[in-house]
Amino acid sequence: MLPKGKTGNIRHAKLKTWVAEMAALCKPDRVVWINGSEEEKKRLEDEAVATGELIRLNAEKLPGCFYHRTAVNDVARTEHLTYICTKKKEDAGPTNNWMLPKDGYKKAGAYFRGAMKARTMYVIPFSMGPVGSSFSKVGVELTDSIYVVLNMRIMAKIGTKVLDHLGLDGEFTKCLHSKADLDIDKRLILHFPEDNTIWSVGSGYGGNVLLGKKCLSLRIASFLARQEGWLAEHMLIMGVEEPNGHVEYIAAAFPSACGKTNLAMLIPPEGLKVKGYKIWTIGDDISWMRIDTDGALWAINPEAGFFGVAPGTNSKSNPNAMATIKKNTIFTNVLLKKDFTVWWEDGDEPPPSEGLDWQGRPWKPGMKDEKGQVIKGAHPNSRFTAPAAQCPSISFRLEHHHGVPISAIVFGGRRAQVAPLVYETFSWQHGVYVGATMASERTAAQVGKQGEVRRDPMAMLPFCGYHMGDYFRHWLSIGEKLEKVPKIFHVNWFRADENGKFLWPGFGENLRILEWILDRCNNKAQAIKTPIGYIPAPDSLDMTGLHMPKENLKKLFEIDRFQWLQEMESQKEFLSIFGDKLPREISQEWEAQNKRLQE
Hints:
about 25% helix; 9-stranded mixed sheet; 16 helices; alpha/beta; single chain
């Protein structure tokens, strides 16, 4: 079956040949080319419901919504099975798993052989970013999962319009996926940056199989960005509009569990509403940034949807997300209620009296396993996939081919001590050093020792498609080429008192910090110089309506030299893993900051 209007006439010879070769390897019963029409969407939904791949949710309460469960062993990104396959191990660097390309193709090829027997291979032409934009990249994903097709419809531009844009010989990323038999011992997520190719086998979880997302938009794109002179980053993009209509844009990188989506969809707090700010969401996860002819840094969000974590999403933490997911959303691994609606922990509603948990088992509140642990109804990494266009705060600039100009770049982490609420770096180079050493303490929800510091440079540790030493150098080179250089800041919403209680209320109140950041970009706010950067001067933050003890505000900006000197030793140890590839400028910034702290 070919797209309507194509009648067997796919004009792109290389694409046709590649699809035929992969079909010969995977042996599907049939090959269906996805055209992206509404009629096709309905047909695929009906087919997935008939086979049990999807469950149709309550049409009155959740119109156009569906429910999906993944295999029990397949609920998150499998980083230990994710590889960068380059000819030289050094090119992948010390932070990536590495495999020779020939070994990767051979090993995964054995798992793909015949994996689609008695199944359909769907061919999904997709564009990350507006079709035809100079920012955008085209991929073609082959998959045997309708779940993947329907999710890719939400997360990217797909179908005939992308194929038309590719024309006779347009460049595209070759993306091959099969669920195969969902055997974790035969699961691989392989990236071949030198071949512009991604192979994913043995998984059905979105982060491993929606190949336009982390795989193309970060791992492959970061490799391409270095070659082509731009940045592919794990960053939200948001706009802050003043009452006079002037909008400034911020790109921000946070490791997981630091509230990225919540910040991207922030609602101004009561105390600042009198100022008339509006927040515009461009994206909550990925930013592609280029230097434009004006010498400034411009960014697009290459995605068309949100693939968000459900537990903890509620009307307090993120009212805009709750409004976004009321229709046309795919829910994965949450709890299914008797009335065919959904529920998750720390959502808006109290637990239902009964339901089916994320594994499909009968569930009641308070149930415990054999170890006495409470059984959760929704998996902690359960997800929603929703169209960005449904978000009340979405910006019309999401579809803008040109993107938006970035005034400030913000790095953040989760630190109970050490890092103040906000500080401005001294320069682009100092900012790159701060990004390169950013860290979070593990929460109870993460694997590892609670409180342990995990370094995650620019929040890109799992997603950089090449050696991170070269990645830092690339950031430095971008700064040298910029004529209008965005200021770089670091924030920490999670500073705690001696009892472990957060000192800062977070959520909408974070706009107070963003206001100071943008005022600093426009030389409007006062600051105090410290050994690590500039912190807000007293009274330079607008605290109207926020009744916080002065002592708490003071604690939020304390810089404890003893803690910071320990932090510097921890940073030095981390940076040493990059060896000779660590840019001299990063070492110089570390030395200079260490000296300032000792003086």
